[in-house]
Structures are given as C-alpha cells and as structure tokens.
C-alpha cells in the first residue's frame, strides 16, 4: 500500500509528491497523459498549436457547456460539436509544462475580499480561511524550489515579502521595454518587471533559458521553465504512472480506500493508499468526486454540504494589442523591435484596487508581452482586408510580407476577479459520457457584470501606455469568455462544513484522508494568474500531510 | 478516374476523398478533394510555388489525420464538390480542367459566397501550415517560407511528423 496516492501530476499535485517522496514516504502519482520531457519537447507549431497534441481529442473526451445570460437563460453547447475545449494539458506535469510562467503572488487584500471591499450583489464573495501571512513562506518556497526570476520594485500594491528580492536575476528583455518604461514614466504609472517561473541561469539542477522564442503553449527543452515535472517530479522518487485516468474513488467508514483508473484501452486498475490527494484540475476534480457517489454520499463524495462543484471561477478580463510599424521608427528602433527571442516582461498593477465615484473596486493586473511567435497563426491573421473580405493571390502575399516583416504587435492581458456566482459551477451530465463510459463534466458558465466593468477600466489604462509608446491599430476585448487555462473553485475551503467542501488544510470535511490541492480550493481567485498560488498552497498542504503521516 | 467495381469505388472514396460532381440532377463526373485542392492552393496562394514550396501533398496528411475532425474533412470534400459544380455551371468543365483565367473567375465568384469564402479560408489555413510549418511535413522546402518572412523556426525542431496517434510517430 502506498502512503499517498495523488491524482494528477500538475502544479497542484506535484509539490505533495516532491515533499513526501523526499521525506521518505511511498508516493504514487496517477496521470492521465503521457510523459514528455526535455529530450522530447520541440517547437512544432503544427503538432502543438494546430493539432493540439497535448490535449485529449474532443471526440473522445468533452464537456457539456451551459452558458448563462444575466437573465438566467442558458444556451447548451456540446464540446465536441462546438469545438469548445476546456482541456489544458494532459501530460506529466500537466499544463505547467505549457505555461508562460507569468508569476504574481496574490495580495493580502485578495484573502479578504468580502471584508475589505464589501458584498457584491449577485456574487458569492467570501474571505479566505487563511491569510496572506500564512501562505507567504510558501510563496517564498516556490521562488526557491520552482525558481522564480525577476526583480522586485516598490509600488503601491507590492505585497509584503520575507526576502527583499527574487532569488534569480531577470531574464533578458527586448529593447522595446525601454520605450514602455519611458511611456509609463510620462503617464506616472509604475512598470513592474514581470516575475517569471523561468530560470535565467543554470540552477537547481536545470539549464537556464535559451530564449527559444516559443515559450507559452510549448514544453521547455532546457528545463528552465518551472513546470511541475521539471522542478519537482524529476527531483524526487515518487512513482509516476502514466496513461491512468482515475474515474472513481471508493470510500468506506469516512475514508477513501482506493482509486480506480482506466488505461486508454480501458484496462481497469486499482490503487490503495493511506492518504489520497486529488489534483486533476478544478473542473475534473469536481467531476471525479461527483462521479464517486456512495450510499453515504448520494450527491457525490465529500458533498454533504451540497457545495461540491459550486462557485467555479476563472480569471476575468481579456486582452488587447497595438502594432509598431517601421514607418514611425528609426533604424535602431526597427532593429530593437524585431529582435527575436528576448522577453518583454512588463506588468502594471497601479489599479490593483481603484476608486470610482464613492466606491473602491478591486482591480487587477495587466501583463504586457509580444504577440506569440507562432508563424502559421500570424500569417493566418492576414487573411482578410479591412472590410472583412477574404484575400487571396498576390494581394494576400503582399499583405503578409508587409505586416510580418515591417511591424510587430505588443499585446496585453488583463487579469481581474471573476466573481463567484450561483450559475457558475461544475456538474456531471446524465446522458453524455466519455470514451470510457464515464459521465462527462458539465460546465455551467456565468459571469458577473462587475467583472466586465473592472476589466474595461484596466484595459483603458493599458491602451494609454500603447498610445504613449506610439503604437497604431490599438484594440482590446474585455469579455465574459472564460480562459480554460485559468480555472479555479468547485471545492471551496472554509471553516464551516455546511458552506465549504474542504477545511483550511484542504482536507475534505467529510473524509479523514482526502485532500484536494489543485485550484479547486480557491473561494476567490485574486487578480493574477493562479499557478504561483496553487504551487504555494500545495507546499503548505504537503507540510500538513507530512505531519499527519509522522504522527 | 474510373472504377472497376463498387468496392474499389468505395475504397477510393475513403482514401482519395472522391467527390461526385453534379450538374443539375445529372452526374457530371468524379474527382477528388485532393486533386482539386492541389490546384486551388496554387491559385489562392501562388507565392508558395514561387518560393519553391510544395504545399500540394500536405492536404493528404490532413485528410487522414485523426486530429482533424470528421466534420472538417467532410467540409473539405464538400467544398471541392461545390467548387467543381460552380465551375461546371460557369464553364461546363470541372475546376482542374479550366484555364487559369477561368479558374480565377470561378474563384472571384465563390469567394463572394458565404460557403466559398469559408471554404477557401480553411484551405488557405492548411496551405499556410504546409508553407510555414516545420519542413519535416514536406512543405516549406529549405525553410523558404520562413526565410521569406525573416523568421527563425523555434528550436529544437521536431525530428518526426506528428500524425495524431499516441505520441510522435512517422
């Protein structure tokens, strides 16, 4: 029997594996996907970005999506028929292999959204049951173990730190960042070098970044990116079982006793362990528990509260862009602009909260980055003229050549709170099942109107920077479209078993030995990408489990 | 293209994406999506050929690829059928047998329609995959597409094509 069985090998599960295996415990990690590593990752745009090689085919595994309007009506989408894809990365290390590694800590106020900013009508806002101070040592641990590079600069919303700076120096940046910093100075904004979960030099038994120009969406071939696989699973002796889709957890007398999994050829297996840790990504973790009904838990395992699957959240916001064209640049500026490989790495948090009228709103983060270098995608964006007519022949070739060789796009991404609401949650479908015959997850989607208002406020400030920098074709889109790679909630943690699924240590209130350590525990998401917080919380829970196993 | 028996006809239908061209209520002829798209790609994006890039064979990979949905494959085949039927309607010949001037006129016509614009958009995106994807897939000869746009492919490069079954395979 294993001491610990972990379902899912991403950022939520791997810190547990790393800590407990290195402490001498017998740990097994069950991962649905395959193993890829530094020796097999490459930059094949067709495979990675066009054929989605790291996510399951929707014909075999899909979701049902119900999109709710503010009036309460909804439209139902079949994931396979609509192509609406909520998978992120089915491989050892999960989607942390494919992240860009834009790392921001949550701020102290993010842990007490209700207390600081008050109730929001129509939203289920609560305070977290732990404080920033309780998580801070683990944020710092992530900096050291996963490897976070950058430079801390003082600004109005800089969170308290136990160390003065990040442990690894900044990655090299493109010359255009100077234009950005100059524009921010004019506007009296504070540019922040974006912390990245990418090693700028050889360290931690991994190679430093080699500036491949293809970071986000791609696996890292040097090990510089702080994926759960490179930074944790490859640094411990936990047993990783690939091709293991866990479809059910058995429970008895208040304990989980075994995990059932299928291989891709539907061969069933069983794993017994003393402690089970669920970290299959927020939507899939809720789905697995809902599919693990028993007489004792007729509405899903660990669901005596009826809260399982509820309050699913994403990162609200959107994105925008502006283009720099050669006609407006000097020769030196053109060279700086077109320099390949180097990062942009600038963020703004001047409006992490802001006053509008007589109310203080929780705001968010804006990350700036160059348009992704995927060439097929960039060429495909030139298919239409300004009137929306399809181009072909020589006109198309001329447009592609001019756009791609004499201009470059700087983009921005807005991150603000996706307020939890009653209609945004996870359920399972009674009729639709996946290739193994297991009921698929239903994603009920709803966004709060305030999410869009805050996103607009942030985007308008980002536009000011692009204007000041001299960009043209500036545009942005703030929408309620959920980013599938920024999902959390469904198994809220809290002190009251009647209103939360997990306790403050992310253990199910209902069961003695079941923990959930992906982003499911988060009652609110902060206004930053989640990965750093997922890693930090998982390290925190690992300490709790270690104590329990030692006692 | 002729078929000695029904089984061969059906087999050809799966492997070479045969499409039946109708003229009104009568069968005008049979062609394949692959043959039609080969000619069409060069009409839509002649720069590829000028750069020495052969995009023609790539569509065969797409028509067999398990990661391309059945609906997308059906759309590719149906579009080839509709394009040929428009050609027959306009010039009494299937698309591949028309002069380049007449093919140009057919394209001007179909790209004004909703289906034609959408279908040519799809074909062009696959053409771009061939022209600007990794040379391992058979297009982008000597990285000519990348060189044209002063693009450096990301490294490491793939050593095998991804054909959608399991991990990387040939």
Polypeptide structure, described:
The complex is a heterodimer of chains A (551) and B (170). Chain A is α+β, with helices and mostly antiparallel strands and 551 residues long. Chain A has 13 helices and 20 strands. Chain A has helices at residues 14-22, 45-50, 79-82, 113-117, 132-147, 176-187, 228-231, 282-290, 331-338, 375-380, 394-405, 449-469, 531-550; strands at 2-7, 27-30, 64-68, 74-78, 192-193, 239-241, 245-252, 255-262, 268-278, 310-325, 346-348, 353-356, 359-362, 364-370, 407-417, 425-433, 439-445, 472-479, 487-490, 514-516. In chain A, strands 1, 2, 6, 7, 8, 9 and 20 form a 7-stranded mixed sheet that branches. In chain A, strands 5, 10, 11, 14, 15, 18 and 19 form a 7-stranded antiparallel sheet that branches. Chain A is globular. Chain B has a domain at 34-148. Chain B contains 8 helices and 2 strands. A two-stranded antiparallel ribbon of chain B has the order 1-2. In chain B, strand 1 (18-23) and strand 2 form a beta hairpin. In chain B, helix 2 (33-44) packs across helix 7 (114-132) and helix 5 crosses helix 7 (114-132). The model of chain B is unreliable at 6-15 (pLDDT under 50).
List descriptors:
heterodimer; A: 551 residues; alpha+beta; FAD/NAD(P)-binding domain; 7-stranded antiparallel beta sheet; globular; B: 170 residues; mainly alpha
Summarize the structure.
Chain A is an alpha+beta fold and 551 residues long.
Q: Estimate percent helicity of chain B.
A: 40-55%
Principal-axes shape call of chain A: globular
**Strand portion of chain A, in percent?**
15-25%
Arithmetic mean pLDDT of chain A: 97
> How many structural domains of chain A?
1
Secondary structure topology:
The complex is a heterodimer of chains A (551) and B (170).
Chain A: E1 2-7, H1 14-22, E2 27-30, H2 45-50, E3 64-68, E4 74-78, H3 79-82, H4 113-117, H5 132-147, H6 176-187, E5 192-193, H7 228-231, E6 239-241, E7 245-252, E8 255-262, E9 268-278, H8 282-290, E10 310-325, H9 331-338, E11 346-348, E12 353-356, E13 359-362, E14 364-370, H10 375-380, H11 394-405, E15 407-417, E16 425-433, E17 439-445, H12 449-469, E18 472-479, E19 487-490, E20 514-516, H13 531-550
Parallel strand pairs in A: 1-2, 1-9, 2-6, 3-17, 9-20
Antiparallel strand pairs in A: 3-4, 5-11, 7-8, 8-9, 10-15, 10-18, 10-19, 11-14, 12-13, 14-15, 16-17
Helix pairs in contact in A: 1-13, 5-13, 6-12
Chain B: H1 6-15, E1 18-23, E2 26-32, H2 33-44, H3 47-50, H4 58-64, H5 70-91, H6 100-110, H7 114-132, H8 144-148
Antiparallel strand pairs in B: 1-2
Helix pairs in contact in B: 2-5, 2-7, 5-6, 5-7
């Amino acid at each position: 029997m294993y001491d610990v069985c972990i379902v899912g090998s991403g950022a939520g599960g791997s810190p547990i594996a790393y800590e407990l295996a290195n402490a001498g415990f017998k740990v097994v990690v069950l991962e649905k996907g395959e193993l890829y590593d530094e020796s097999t990752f490459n930059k094949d745009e067709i495979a990675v970005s066009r054929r989605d090689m790291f996510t399951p085919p929707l014909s075999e595994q899909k979701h049902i999506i119900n999109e709710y309007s503010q009036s309460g009506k909804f439209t139902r989408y079949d994931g396979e028929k609509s192509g609406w894809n909520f998978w992120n990365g089915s491989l050892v290390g999960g989607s942390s292999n494919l992240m860009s590694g834009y790392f921001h800590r949550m701020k102290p106020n993010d842990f007490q959204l209700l207390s600081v900013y008050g109730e929001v009508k129509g939203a289920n806002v609560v305070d977290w049951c732990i404080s920033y101070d309780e998580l801070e040592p683990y944020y710092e641990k992530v900096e050291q173990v996963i490897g976070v590079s950058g430079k801390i600069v003082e600004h109005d919303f800089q969170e308290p730190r136990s160390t003065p700076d990040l442990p690894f120096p900044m990655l090299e940046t493109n010359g255009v960042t100077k234009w950005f910093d100059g524009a921010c100075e004019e506007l009296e904004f504070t540019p922040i070098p974006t912390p990245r979960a990418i090693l700028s030099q050889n360290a931690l038994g991994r190679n430093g970044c080699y500036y491949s120009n293809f970071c986000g969406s791609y696996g890292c071939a040097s090990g510089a990116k702080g994926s759960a696989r490179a930074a944790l699973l490859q640094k411990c002796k936990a047993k990783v079982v690939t091709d293991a889709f866990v479809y059910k957890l058995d429970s008895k007398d208040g304990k989980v006793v075994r995990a059932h999994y299928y291989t891709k050829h539907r061969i069933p297996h069983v794993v017994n362990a003393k402690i089970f840790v669920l970290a299959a990504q927020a939507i899939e973790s809720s789905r697995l528990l809902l599919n693990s009904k028993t007489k004792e838990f007729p509405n899903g395992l660990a669901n005596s509260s009826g809260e399982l699957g509820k309050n699913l959240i994403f990162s609200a916001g959107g994105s925008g862009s502006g283009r720099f064209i050669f006609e407006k640049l000097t020769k030196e500026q053109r060279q700086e602009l077109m320099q390949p490989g180097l990062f942009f790495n600038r963020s703004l948090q001047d409006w992490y909260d802001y006053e509008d009228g007589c109310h203080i709103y929780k705001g968010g983060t804006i990350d700036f980055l160059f348009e992704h270098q995927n060439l097929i995608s960039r060429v495909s964006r030139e298919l239409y003229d300004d009137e929306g007519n399809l181009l072909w022949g020589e006109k198309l070739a001329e447009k592609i050549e001019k756009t791609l060789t004499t201009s470059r796009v700087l983009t921005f991404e807005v991150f603000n709170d996706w307020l939890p609401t009653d209609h945004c949650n996870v359920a399972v479908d009674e009729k639709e099942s996946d290739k193994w015959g297991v009921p698929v997850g239903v994603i009920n989607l709803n966004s709060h109107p305030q999410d869009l208002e805050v996103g607009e406020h942030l985007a308008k400030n980002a536009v000011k920077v692009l204007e000041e920098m001299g960009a043209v074709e500036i545009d942005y889109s703030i929408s309620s479209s959920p980013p599938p790679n920024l999902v959390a909630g469904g198994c809220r943690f809290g002190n009251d078993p009647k209103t939360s699924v997990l306790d403050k240590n992310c253990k199910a209130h209902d069961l003695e030995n079941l923990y959930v350590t992906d982003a499911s525990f988060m009652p609110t998401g902060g206004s930053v990408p989640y990965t750093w917080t997922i890693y930090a919380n998982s390290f925190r829970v690992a300490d709790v489990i270690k104590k329990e196993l030692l006692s | 293209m002729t078929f000695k028996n029904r089984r061969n006809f059906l087999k050809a239908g799966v492997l070479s994406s045969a499409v039946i061209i109708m003229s009104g209520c009568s069968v005008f002829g049979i062609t394949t999506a692959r043959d039609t798209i080969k000619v069409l790609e060069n009409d839509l994006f002649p720069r590829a050929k000028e750069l020495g890039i052969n995009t023609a064979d790539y569509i065969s990979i797409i028509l067999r690829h398990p990661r391309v949905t059945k609906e997308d494959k059906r759309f590719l085949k149906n579009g080839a059928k509709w394009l040929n039927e428009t050609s027959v309607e306009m010039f009494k010949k299937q698309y591949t047998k028309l002069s380049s001037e007449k093919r140009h006129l057919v394209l001007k016509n179909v790209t004004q329609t909703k289906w034609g614009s959408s279908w040519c958009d799809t074909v062009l995106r696959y053409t771009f995959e061939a022209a600007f994807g990794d040379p391992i897939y058979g297009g982008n000869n000597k990285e000519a597409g990348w060189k044209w746009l002063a693009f450096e492919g990301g490294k490491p490069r793939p050593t095998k094509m991804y054909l959608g079954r399991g991990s990387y395979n040939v």
